[in-house]
From TrEMBL:
Name listed for the protein in its UniProt record: Enoyl reductase (ER) domain-containing protein
GO MF, one annotated term: S-(hydroxymethyl)glutathione dehydrogenase [NAD(P)+] activity
Record's subunit section: Homodimer.
Homology family: Belongs to the zinc-containing alcohol dehydrogenase family. Class-IV subfamily.
Entry annotated with the keyword Zinc: yes
Domain Alcohol dehydrogenase-like N-terminal positions: 38-137
Keywords in alphabetical order: Metal-binding, NAD, Oxidoreductase, Zinc
The keyword NAD is assigned to this record: yes
GO biological process: formaldehyde catabolic process
Cofactor(s) needed: Zn(2+)
A GO cellular component entry from the record: cytosol
Pfam families assigned: ADH_N, ADH_zinc_N
Length: 383
């Protein structure tokens, strides 16, 4: 537990992947320390309660309910003020596993630093984040649900709404039907798309009306070691519930998938979304768009081969390729309205959650993922 003195002190708590006691420093200027209530795999999406605040923090106080966000918003830099970008110059991407303010870590294990992940590190009972990487929400909002808005669900819906601006009656093709892909489907459905085609190579995709996602990827930085994990995840609700109207399995096609898509969409889709993280698939998505106005949006983060190639004629014929980070949302400015939409039942989140597990069982969550038996596991830490 935190010290009862006025100044925050170093505390110890459990942290995964290996369940160990680590020391967590008090928040420094403009930082807050959060008691994590619902950390989400892979440790960059969480909801919790502010445990203490650092010097200069005025937006938050102890007891506030918050979402952590890997893409911060300082609200004062050139990018934040421009209204043209969601990538903050100050709190954009944390790459070194260190805090933005002093390039140090707040986690220690046996005297050695443990590095942060995506500036939010939610695989821990407590975490320290820059105040620009947290979003205050109402205490009446269920933390165990809206934690999914810290990345995956918000990223998918926003890609359809903010980045692609999916239009009513349009044809949409989604490559990769994990949580992000299904969130794109939900966003496209709410925008009135008439046809939403899912592309995924898992043969069990339509068994018993369910879908199984393709492999996804993430990294963890823990004591100088980068860990990678490939996994498949079971979607416990029907494709139709999220808006998918049909599913195409590339392995069952006799022609390249781009040709198949163009054949069944009269020359190509209006919008394509790459949600796998494969540069070759991104090229395929671009080729699957129609001439003249087809838009392809890249959401996936490539595990390998980060460079893509495409024939220049695709662009000469009017196709557009866009990148999407966090669905084009400004996290602190826009997430509260997305939370409100959830509370008003305008968007769905609950159906993405297939399991709720206590923190001590976090390795069971990993097993569920690797065995293809879950879509999203929410890990609960008692208050």
């Amino acid at each position: 537990m935190a010290s009862s003195s006025s100044a925050p002190q170093v505390i110890t708590c459990k942290e995964a992947l290996v369940m160990e006691e680590v020391e967590i420093s008090p928040p420094q200027p403009l930082e807050i320390r959060i008691k994590t209530i619902f950390p989400r795999i892979f440790g960059h999406e969480a909801s919790g309660v502010v445990e203490s605040v650092g010097q200069g923090v005025t937006e938050f106080k102890e007891g506030d309910h918050v979402l952590t966000v890997f893409l911060g918003e300082c609200m004062s830099c050139k990018m934040c003020k421009s209204g043209k970008s969601t990538i903050c110059q100050v709190l954009g991407f944390e790459r070194k596993g260190l805090m933005h303010s002093d390039q140090k870590t707040r986690f220690m294990f046996k005297g050695k630093p443990v590095y942060h992940y995506c500036a939010v590190s939610s695989f821990s009972e407590y975490t320290v984040v820059h105040s620009g990487c947290a979003v205050k929400i109402s205490p009446h909002v269920p933390l165990e649900k809206v934690c999914l808005l810290s990345c995956g669900v918000a990223a998918g819906i926003g890609a359809a709404w903010n980045v692609a601006d999916v239009s009513k009656g349009s044809t949409v093709v989604i490559f990769g039907l994990g949580t992000v892909g299904l969130s794109v489907a939900q966003g496209a459905k709410l925008r009135g798309a008439s046809r939403i085609i899912g592309v995924d190579n898992n043969p069990r995709k339509c068994e018993n009306g369910t879908i199984i996602s393709s492999p996804s990827y993430s990294e963890f930085i823990f004591q100088h070691v980068t860990w990678s994990l490939d996994f498949t995840m079971l979607v416990s609700t029907t494709a139709k519930a999220f808006g998918i109207t049909e599913v195409v399995d590339p392995n069952s096609c006799q022609k390249p998938i781009a040709q198949v898509i163009k054949g069944i969409t009269d020359g190509g889709a209006d919008f394509c979304f790459e949600c796998v993280g494969d540069s070759d698939m991104l090229t395929t998505a671009l080729e699957s768009c129609c001439d003249g106005w087809g838009v392809t949006v890249a959401l996936g983060v490539p595990r390998l081969k980060p460079k893509m190639s495409a024939h220049y004629s695709l662009f000469l014929k009017g196709r557009t390729l866009k990148g999407s980070i966090f669905g084009g949302w400004k996290p602190k400015s826009d997430l509260p309205s997305l939370v409100e939409k959830y509370m008003n039942k305008e968007i769905q989140i609950d159906d993405y959650i297939t399991h709720n597990l206590p923190f001590d069982d976090i390795n069971k969550a990993f097993n569920l993922m690797t065995e293809g038996k879950c879509l999203r596991c929410v890990i609960h830490i008692p208050r």
